[in-house]
């Protein structure tokens, strides 16, 4: 079996499915379990920290672990860094067969900090029978020192191990998501997969194959703009997924904007309200938008107006803003109630036209769009409210990155075309 600890909504699992394999996921969040069930993935709803290890002994080929990132993420209070010595102690004790989690947890500032030590409990139990054959683990960059401690233990147990930071954009993910990775194997040399993409395209040479330019948001979403990637999605929140990143019934989406940022007039369609309209100016080109929450994106009448669209990661002053022609930066969903929005600026010819419509208001990103930017299929069956869906998406491993990490362990080729993004 392949055991997937902290399985979430199925980032690793979807990658395995595409590669022709399957896992058994351990996950406690009810909505993530519902999403997994709808996606056809085998799941045990449980607390990884409480589930026994004996059912897996003698039966496990691979172990996957992506502990929750909230205690360590820059999107949160980062109390995991304060608790880091306790996490290191937990790893050392568990590797020696001593379970001191209760005492260490009582001293933690964030009860989630020790979850990063849980995989060692399973590894210690499995090692008694020479298992697993391979290990793949992922977390936010600040957890890398902990992964290095794991690596030292696994090497003593006969594993080849690699640890380091990988950028998901280097593997075709339309998102500059940097993650601490641990790869270990008993039967092959552990090493990171060769990058397939680069910030600047690299032509083929005598020294090896070239690399394509980073995949842009426009490419991933099928909006046809240019080429390059998008922000990291890291979510927080409690069992229900935390507060929604924006209010229920939000009235604007960009889901059907497939005209490269060009709003073309179509008679009879509604039009987006503008900042000028809100300020009390005559809405000559901008009647108010009364579309349903999930209705198609609006268009401007009058002339064909061109806008340059970018994705703003949140509503704070230092928010990352990336144009559609690049990958996204880091997207935060959940406990900060940030609004991840598409923002528009007029093109040069638009600015020179005094009769042009005002710049559109920001348009909120949809769960479907966020899922695509994580390389999930456009029709992935996300369960729950918008807030619960965004929390799942933000916490998930991008399936395309997961596939690059897993394919060598499974000894199967990876065809990136199997991860087509836009519908």
UniProtKB/TrEMBL annotation:
GO biological process: methylation
Entry protein name: DNA (cytosine-5-)-methyltransferase
Keywords from the UniProt entry: Methyltransferase, Restriction system, S-adenosyl-L-methionine, Transferase
Protein's UniProt keywords contain Methyltransferase: yes
InterPro entries for this protein: C5-Methyltransferase (IPR050390), C5_MeTfrase (IPR001525), SAM-dependent_MTases_sf (IPR029063)
Keyword Acetylation: no
GO molecular function: DNA (cytosine-5-)-methyltransferase activity
SUPFAM superfamilies in the cross-refs: S-adenosyl-L-methionine-dependent methyltransferases
Family annotation (PANTHER family): CYTOSINE-SPECIFIC METHYLTRANSFERASE, DNA (CYTOSINE-5)-METHYLTRANSFERASE 1
UniProt-listed Enzyme Commission number(s): 2.1.1.37
Residue segments, region Disordered: 236-298
Positions of the catalytic residues: 69
Signal peptide: none
Family: Belongs to the class I-like SAM-binding methyltransferase superfamily. C5-methyltransferase family.
Domain of life: Bacteria
Gene3D superfamilies named among the record's database cross-references: DNA Methylase, subunit A, domain 2, Vaccinia Virus protein VP39
Any Pfam family the entry gives: DNA_methylase
